[in-house]
Give the backbone structure.
Amino acid sequence: MDKAVEQVIENIRKLRIEKGISIIQLSNESGISRSHLFYIESKKSVPSLITLSKLATAMNVTMKDFFEE
């Protein structure tokens, strides 16, 4: 997996934890299945732009936040 993609995934997880959101809550808010979120956070799946958009909306952040180092 590309380092940039790994950084995006790490940022998703970091932001989720900082906001105190569980994977179950994020699943409910974003409409993305828990299993897909687990695969993303364990770096077994690369999120699409649509998935990133849904996650950003659910966490009340911008997609840009996922790409910052």
About this structure: The chain has a mean pLDDT of 96.
